[in-house]
Specification:
Layout: E1 2-7, H1 15-30, E2 39-44, H2 79-84, E3 88-94, H3 102-113, E4 130-135, H4 140-146, H5 152-161, E5 166-170, H6 189-198, H7 200-222
Parallel strand pairs: 1-2, 1-3, 3-4, 4-5
The structure holds flavin mononucleotide (FMN).
The site of flavin mononucleotide (FMN) has 17 residues, from helix 1.
Amino acid sequence: MEFYIINGGPRKKYNTAELLKKASEGIKDELKDIDEDVNIHQIHLYDLNFKGCKSCFHCKRIGGKYYAQCPIKDDLLELLPKVQNSDGIIFGSPIYFGEITGELRSFLERFLFSILVYGGESNAPKRMPMAMIYTMNVTEEGFNLFYGDKFDILENAMANLISKPYSLKVYDTFQFSDYSKYENYAFDPELKAKRKEEHFPIDLDNAYNLGKKIAQDSLKLNE
Ligand SMILES: Cc1cc2nc3c(=O)[nH]c(=O)nc-3n(C[C@H](O)[C@H](O)[C@H](O)COP(=O)(O)O)c2cc1C
């Protein structure tokens, strides 16, 4: 079985990356006793060379060579079909100005638009379970106040084209290793440290269980 863990954030050792690592462990543990090989691919989008959809419409060209595929020749050319044919995908992204990062957005434009048929059935080659992990500075109350149903459009598109993603939101993250070194009038370093100590372990557990859930759903689909 093939799983993809896709980090849409730039940092390889912080909140998003740590949560994705836990989710990956959840998949691995859940599938440790199955006979098949289990490969969990870790993708750091910031290491790849690619841009968003260029609106060439080759993916919709009737009878065209690249019908239902993205023809752009960059680091996503070979990766997108592999992810589209995988058994489960977990995306992670920090929230930047109320949105997922530009890199994950660009990836999803090409991942989703290549299988979208205007007014028709999805061209997805496979319906695998998916999850989104969002990390952000705001508290849960702040999220509800400022962002509310912000991610619904994207998640509904994913649901229509492939499957409804699970959504794990991780609030009030610890952003710097030493708050005294950075200019900041918004966050209380002590409260941030407390939150990290008391709540981040719960977030990590949630991510681990999310990984298990993706693995379980995938097994069910493959029955
Ligand atoms: C460019 C930039 C923009 C950000 N914008 C927001 C924002 O709009 N809302 C928010 O809650 N946090 C915002 N943050 C904070 C990050 O989303 C948060 O610290 C996240 O957990 C970082 O993930 P990481 O630790 O994996 O890098 C922003 C951070 C950066 C660097």
